[in-house]
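Troubleshooting log. The previous run stalled partway through. Resubmitting the same two chains, unchanged.
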Amino acid sequence: MERRNFLKIMAAGATVVAVNPSLIRGTLYADDGRMYAAYEKVQIVDAAGVPIKASSLEKEVTYIFNYPYAATPCMLINLPESTSQEVELKSEMGETYVWKNGVGKDRTVVAYVAICAHQLTHPTPNDSFIKYVPKSTPTMAYSKSGIIVCSSHLSAYDAAAGAKNLAGAAQQPLAAVVLKVADDDTIWAVGILGADKFQDYFKAFKPEFKEFYGGTAQAKQLVSISAKTVKLTEFSKEVIQY
Amino acid sequence: MALSRRDAMKYTGLAAVTAASSGYAKGNEGAKAAAKGVLLSPAPIPAAKGPRVVIVGAGPSGLTIAKYVKKGNPNIDVVLMDKRSVFMSGFISNLVATGVLPLEFITHDFLEGARNGNYTFLQATAHEIDRTAKIVYTNEGTVKYDVLVLAPGIDYDYSKWTNGDAELETALKTKFPGAFIAGSETLTLKSKIENFEGGVFVQTVPGGNYRCLPGPYERSCLIADYMKRNKIKGKVVILDENPNITIKADGFHSAFDRLYKDYITYMPSTTITSIDPHKQKIVTELGEEIQFNDAALYSRVRGNKLLEIAGVAKDSVFNKGEANIDPFTYQVIGDLNVFCTGDVRPMGFSKSANTANTEGRIVAGNIVKYLAGTELSQKTWASPHTTCYSAVETNPLRAISVNAGYAYDATKKSFGFADASTMEKWDTKEGEDAGKGLLEWGKGLYRDFFN
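Second attempt completed without errors. Output:
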């Protein structure tokens, strides 16, 4: 499938999936009421529209889905180990909030908005400078790997601790996507935790929205029902990391 | 020491204006009075609606501080002033001068920054600062401040080459500008390269802590690359005052050797004793004579003379006339309401856009705290970051990079690099990725300044 078509499908996001809210249980892993915005609850599905199971996510691979807006990319990662819990984080304006933990059987599945908190670098169909760097791959940004790195200005974030800042110029964590995993191991996105940069993002990339989504209005459409997910290497022609 | 407003006007600003206007309208008291009226009246901007932060200089430092002070506390009234009407960046400009990128890439709109950042942009030249009355005098009138940020950037210091000979200095500036203050100099460099027919192109590298350490080496690579691409029989001769390439030395040396062996001659530890801009000849301390067909003669740098006008200049260990500030708070010694940032800082940080941008965010946060009553100190200091890319080849675009923070050494009482790393393998996939990274790095900075 061409990237362009794929994006159109992602943007439309109108795959009809029967949702039975009673299937979804377990606690929100991040919501303590502060710095949290609930959006439409959407199911994470693959390119063919088939629901993805948390345990089927490949370890240490960056997956991309757009949420809560048609053009806001997020990263979904299955980490090698359980995440930290109850991580206190601080936005650049000094507001504090708590990121609870990863989800899934071993608390290894996390999701973050893939728009760098520093200068809004994000994956596009052409290229991506932001990704999870697996433990075995060195990075210029930090002394150890197994973290998220934006290779534009080398901001490093702790993937296992709410995208807490580890190094570089970013002054706040990446916003986190609040996920739920249902009893049947399906994954749902329900909201955004932390200080997102959506307004700045929508202001800064108008030509890009026109090129890939048809326009800013289309880019700002809320995703509903389901969000298609592909590997970052399928989403972007080129993935660049130092 | 701050002059009183009366003294200030007597000795500098108004005296100069009076002289200028009297030449035009001799004996015309009406014109003189009108000039005084404009200069002493408030500039045509809205009255401050809260504590006012005035920033002089809309480069990477000033633009960042304007935006983030306003973000930090929207009740603060922010005025950003610059003598230019259009922003042009020095970073990325070597790729524009060598025809790889269009001028639009580095050219940006101050008004866009003001609209998106909700601050006031005033196109004006500051010519006097009265720190007692807290007034900036500009050609558009007066602007009162509660906090003043001086971020005017560098000036060139030609004294080692000209020994005060203004005729020589003007000839050098006009014919062979260094092109490290973006604007007309960038356009001159671009036209020099486009029209170069062959022979020797001299690029000098100054001593001291000059603006954009890798810049002259990057430019030499790109000019050599241009000659190669266009089959021009020419050579870039780099006359470096320093004993070796000052940053990313392995990457640049290997590019010189492997890509541009026939196009670049690198001469380290070269002190120039004379330059004849008319005969186009340079003589070095060792008696070497270099005849050149064209050149970009980058002199030493110094703090912008606005600091002297404001009475806040002091020679640093690196350069003349830099800011006399507390290195942790950026506040002028003895005048806490005045901050000096960006390339006028006396600390040995890299004089680069990314450093000024990351520093600007920290200082902006501290200004907001200071206006809320917090005392600034070493505890409120945080390290700026120096991340930068240098292109070494254009097809494909390949680059090398450095990433570093700074730490204070209390025993040496100075700052040094901390957690520094470099990527100098331009000939690998990483080098090609860095070429793409360079463009995204630049775009990120423009986004931060203007969106």
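Takeaways: Chain A has one domain: 3-237. The domain at 3-237 of chain A is CATH 2.102.10.10 (Rieske Iron-sulfur Protein).
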